Structures are given as structure tokens and as C-alpha cells.
Amino acid sequence: MALQGFDAQHFLDTAWQRKAVLIKAALPNFQCPLDGNDLAGLACEDDVDSRIIIEAKDGWELRNGPFQESEFATLPKSHWTLLVQGVDQYLPELADLMAQFRFLPRWRTEDIMVSYATDGGNVGPHYDQYDVFLVQGSGKRRWKIGGHCSPDTPLHSHPQLKLLQNFECEEEFLLEAGDILYVPPGVAHWGVAEGDDCMTLSVGFRAPSETALLGDFCDEIASRSDESRRYRDPQLSADSNPGEILPAVHAQLKQLLLKQLNDDALLARWFGEMMTRVPDQSEYRDNSTSLDEFSALLASGLELQLRLGARLAFDEQYLFADGVAFAYPPQNRAEVEALCRVECGESIDSLQNFSVEMLYALYCNATLYVDDDTNDS
């Protein structure tokens, strides 16, 4: 079901990465798939990224998880917020919410962060470096929108929180359950809970910096380079000053580097792998099951499912899955396209024409898993 009262193409043409937009009642009768207790339980897990921000008279206090259950009983009655990152990796019900934003490139998706706030709870005025859709799950939150910020925008001296020193409100919105506020990168915003049990689900979209792109691509080039290939001098003159770096040397160096940068095939593969990369994915990869054992599992009627939080993309040559490029034959293009439209928890009918070897590779990569409940009665 598409977002109500929302024209996706008009939004992309007029607002995307330009200005904040309120989509009122975008999700009619929205029922938040988790509550504060659920979120607190996740925040107690060792492998979950969580934090609590408390607004006190003398400023903001940041506490990092994982937390003990007893810690929540010691919090003040108001003006605090619990934030948990990547909740879509743990809660299947959030797949339906993520599906509402497939008018945007899937490979730009980051995760869903969920926050629970008591009355007055907020994280201070700030700006983000990525696009975000703020979905109000329950309760109310008042959002104030400021102007565009830059690296020169003055910040408070808090050692861990990047809060704006000066905030001037230009727009103001009160969000209730089912409302969505889009905020583009660099736009100042400040949300404050009005009443208790305020749940906000933040659907974020990754936007790597130029520094990150250059650094990662250079690492990729270096990992594939041949150490035996070395810098070679241009034609030298015995009369030149031995301390001078001649323009011909610069030209030689530029040619050497551009030869690597102009490898379009390498660029395409690297970018697909980088944009689908999942933190700590290597911990889940497992090839302990043999191909024969895997084939027997499929033959027994067990179905494959897409892992929560799996990241997929494709181009003309590769299916990119969780940071790995899998080459596919042209005749499987339709199946690859279909797979990249599947949401977690849905039946994966598009896999029927894939080779067992491809399915096995995706299984070992932990992108797919065998649903042991398929044949349960």
C-alpha cells in the first residue's frame, strides 16, 4: 500500500534533498509495531546500538548502551529519550514500513532507528548528513525546522553530541501517529515529545561522504594492484637540476593514477559492493553446510527467506548482496530484478529459476536463510 496523499514523483521533482516536507496522515490508522518496553528490551542486548539522552537544567547527558533493565527505573519522569539503531534488523514487522519507501533506490537505504521519549524528551537541535523520513509511531512530537547548515555552523561544546549553538525556527509541525516528516541532509531540526509514550521511527538513507568514497575506492584499487608494477621516469635530461620535480613527472604520475580510475568495470563492481555492505556481516557468513546438504534441504520442501536487514542491488552483470557481487547470466535478469523487490518475510518465488549454486552462495553469505518453520503444522 502506497503512502496516502503522496505523489512520489512530485516529491522527487520538488523536495527530495531540497526541503522538509510534512506528509499528513500518510499511514492512516497506523499501529506502531513496538512499544517502549520492546525498545528497552532491545537496548539491553549486547549487539544492539542504543543510547539514552537526558535533557537536564545544565544541558544534555548522553548514556550509551547496552543497558541493564534496572537502569530504566532510575530515569527521571520526563525529558529523556531512548534511541535504538537498526531495529529493522530485529523486528520483521518493520519490513512493511520500509516497503513504503521503495520509490527511492533500495541501495541507498540505511536502517530504521526507533526512539521512545517521555514528555519533553528530545535530542537537541541538530542536523544530519543523510536523508530521513520521521514516521510518528505513537504519541505526539512537535518538530521545529531551521535553515540549512554547513561544516562552519557553530556547535555546542558537548564532547559527544553535535548540537547547534544557535537555532532559528522557520517551520513547525505537530506529528501524530501515521504522520511523516521528511528532512533532507543539512537541514536543522528539533523534535520535542508532547506527552508520554512518544515513538518515532526514523527511516534513514545512507549518503557516503566524498572522503569515504575516495578512501574506500583507493583501498579497493590498492588491494587489486600488482606490486611489480612501479613508477617509471619520463625521458630524463642529464643537465636538469636533480632537486626539481619536472612537469613531465606530474604528467607521468597522473597517467598512472588515471589508468586505475578509468576502469569502469572495477568502479561499478566496487560501488555496488560498498553500497550494500553490512557492518559485521562476516560474523554471519557460514559455509559449514555443504552444497549437497543445502540441496537436500531445498528438496525436502524448506523455503528460503530474505534475512532481516539484507541489502540488495543489481546492475547488468552482478547481483549485489550484503557487500558481495554475484555474477549472474543474462537469462536470469528478470529473476534478479524480482528478488530486489522482495521484502523480508515475503515468499521468494523469483528464486525458482536461479541455479542451486547461486542460492547456495547467497545462503552462505547469510543473505538468505532456510525457514525451518515451513513444514511446521
TrEMBL record:
PROSITE patterns: JMJC
InterPro entries associated with the record: JmjC_dom, NO66-like, ROXA-like_wH
JmjC domain boundaries: 93-222
Reported cofactor(s): Fe(2+)
Keywords: Dioxygenase, Iron, Metal-binding, Oxidoreductase
Keyword Iron found: yes
SMART domains given in the database record: JmjC
PANTHER family xrefs: MINA53 MYC INDUCED NUCLEAR ANTIGEN, RIBOSOMAL OXYGENASE 1
Protein name: Cupin domain-containing protein
